[in-house]
Amino acid sequence: MTETFLSALNISLTSISIIVIMFIGLWLLLWILIALPINKEPVIVEKSESQVEKSNSDLVQKAAAIAVILALAEMKSNSMITQPAKMPVLVSAWQLGMRTRQMLQKSNNRRRI
After folding, report:
1. Which phi and psi (to 5°) does residue 48 adopt?
2. Is this prediction's pTM over 0.70?
3. Does residue 11 register a pLDDT over 80?
4. DSSP letter (8 states) at residue 1
5. What's the pLDDT tens digit per position in 40-49?
6. Angstrom distance (rounded) from CA 68 to CA 75
7. How far apart are CA 80 and CA 38, in angstroms?
8. What is the 3-state secondary structure (H, E, C) of 36-96?
């Protein structure tokens, strides 16, 4: 029994050590990536006032169009009359007739006794 316990302990310690080593490796990799200098300078884009006003008016027009579309869709969905779904037929007419006949036969047999 001690051999089994020692084997299980050995497997557990090995797997835990592998996981810890992998975490340390990932931590070092992230540390190296952060420490690397990046020589890219941010690109500054200057827009003139006319371009800003034009883009704002375009956004306002798009927002108005979307609002109209949503309002029309909501009006259509509210005006539709939905009918409740029909319940599926669980028993066919033939099954119902046969079951009724069977129950009548059983009830007649009980009355005779």
Report:
1. -80, 165
2. no
3. yes
4. -
5. 676 676 766 6
6. 11
7. 60
8. CCCCCCCCCCCCCHHHHHHHHHHHHHHHHHHHHHHHHHHHHHHHCCCCCCCCCCCCCHHHH
